[in-house]
Amino acid sequence: MKKTKKNCWAFGFTANFTFATASVMMDIKKYCPDFVDEIVIFHNGINDKDKKLLNRILPTKFYEYNFPIKISKLSDSAQNYFTSMVFSKFEALKLLQEYERVIFSDYDILIQGDLSEMFKDCPSGWRVVWAKNKVRDMLYREIDDYDMDKESFHGAFHIVWDHLPDHQKMWEWCYFALEEYAEALWLPETGVFNLLWQEFNIDVERSLHPLVYDCHPSQTDHTKDAKIIHAYAQPKFWNGWDFPQWEQNYRKWAGWGGTPYYERTMKYKLQQKFFDARNKIQRSIGPMKKLIKNLVFGSSSR
Length: 302
Known about the structure:
Elements: E1 5-12, H1 18-31, E2 38-43, H2 48-57, E3 60-64, H3 76-81, H4 91-95, E4 99-105, E5 109-111, H5 116-119, E6 126-134, E7 151-161, H6 167-180, H7 188-199, E8 205-208, H8 210-213, E9 228-230, H9 244-256, H10 266-300
Parallel strand pairs: 1-2, 1-4, 2-3, 6-8
Antiparallel strand pairs: 4-7, 5-9, 6-7
Helix pairs in contact: 1-9, 6-7
InterPro entries: Glyco_trans_8, Nucleotide-diphossugar_trans
Keywords: Signal, Transferase
Protein name: Putative glycosyltransferase family 8 protein
């Protein structure tokens, strides 16, 4: 069957980060409109208004993501840091039934330039940003029958093509491996992908340089020339790092009436003022109680 859509850019996130994805979509529209036919979003309940606004930026399809495994099987740290939405990255493989090429990225990125190198033909069918980290660095323990010394990758995004063999089986295997090795996974979806490549003997193309396509905001000597800045870990663009381009995108989204970042809302600011005032009162009450106690019991003892 001939595919009517060639390329999609996919995201997976909880609804409270819709504003962040909107910013990336604005960048996509600006820097690589010829390489993306539509956006695909896996989510847990985006409201209808935000859906309409996202479609205003680029044509967008929405799928509610149903995680098929009990997340309690994962290590405590993985549960505390990641939501189940991170595993929607596996869905990139299933999307190859509909698209010729799929890029699946995080939403805490800022695009600053032409990305045509990312989309050029890839014989292996899978392209990532290279990394010096080893497979064992993605895990809590070594897993038998897999080479722990293989190079891993930077996880801001990965790109897959439909000539990748057995991509439907790979999609199924990702969830099998996640359940099978849950307690061993530190960076869970990255760890699964590393095992997958060995399981299916995929010669993944690691041709994209991390300082160009996965530059952290703290790497200030390189941020100006980077094509993608990735604010992994904390803080993010919306609660710490100051990047005018991201702020401009956010103001546009907020101006349209899109759901804002909660900590920038008046409700949150008023709550913080209330909590600060309450804490100040509580701090002052303690010494006052002590003073009254000393006065009362001190005078009665005389």
